[in-house]
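Convert to structure. Protein one:
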Amino acid sequence: MPSSQLISGFLPGPAGDLEYLLQAPAAPAATRAALICHPHPLHGGTLHTRIVFHLARGFQERGMPALRFNFRGVGKSAGTHAFGWGEVDDVAAALAFLHARFSLPIVLAGFSFGAVTALRYLERQNDGRIERLVAAGVPADRESLPVSLAWRGPKLLISGDHDEFAQASRLEAYFQSLEPPKRMLWFNGADHFLNGHMDELRRRLGENLDFDQ
C-alpha cells in the first residue's frame, strides 16, 4: 500500500464548516483524487461508516488522495439535516475543497444516501472536474433516483444481490436507464452493507475502476 498521511480538519460548507478526513499520499504522484459521501445521517451514517472507510482505503491503495466528510449536522459538522437536498450543496463544497487542494480529476463516490446525493449533484451539474462516479448500495426501493444526468462520464454501480433496500431487478432497471459508459458490479449473497465482502470490494474496485465503454 502506498504510504500516506491522515489529515483531519474542517472545510467551508454552505451551512457552516464540514468535518473531514483526508488520506493524502506522502509522495505527490497522484493523477486523480477521490471524494466519498457517507450513508444516511438519520440512520447513523458518518464518514467513519465501515464501507466508506473501505472505499477510501481502496482509492488510497491506488495512490489517490481520498477525502471523506460529514454532511451538515453529522459529527462535528455545522448545520442540520436538509433531507438530502441541502446535502447536494455540501457535496459541491467538498468537491471545491478537494480540487483546490490537488487540482486533479476527481472520482466522486458514495454509499447509499451518499450515492443518491452524488447522483443528484450530477443530475444538476455537468462538472468537468469529475472523471467518474462510483455509486455503491444505491437504495432503489427507498429513493427517487435521477435518470437523466447533466454529467456524462463513466458510472460504476456496486450492489449486493441481497440488498434489503434495492431489489436486484429494480436496481438493474435503473442501471439500464443510465446512459453509457457504465458498469454494474454485483456481489453474490451480499446485503446492503456488503458485510463480509470488504476485501473483495477493494479488489474489485481496483479491477473495475477504469473503463470507458
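Protein two, convert as well:
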Amino acid sequence: MNKQMRANRTRAKIHGTSDRPRLSVHFSNLHITAQIIDDDKKATLVYATTVGNKVAGSKTEKATKIGEEIAKKAKTAKINKVVFDRGSKLYAGRMKALADAARKEGLEF
C-alpha cells in the first residue's frame, strides 16, 4: 500500500512526451528491467532487461549493464533526453548505478 502511494506520488509529477520520454526502472528479486515510455502515445520505445540474458555479477553490476544497454538502444532510436522515473525506490545503490551508467553513455536526465 505505502509502496504504491510513493510510486503514485512520484509519477504524478512525471509525464513522458515524445520530445522527452519517461525512463521507468523496475527491480525484482532476480532481474532488472528498464524501459523508455512515451505516455502520450502509450507506447514503449526502448526496452532492456536481464531476463533471458546471462549477466553475471551482483545486482549493482547488473544495474550498470542495463543502464549502459538502455542508453545505447536509446541512441539508436534517436532519444537523447528522458525523464527519470524511479517509482517507489530511493535514488541510491542500484538505482544510482543504473542512472550513472546511462548518463555515462550519453543519456540526459
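Helices lie at 2-12, 59-76, 94-104. The chain is about 35% helix and 20% strand.
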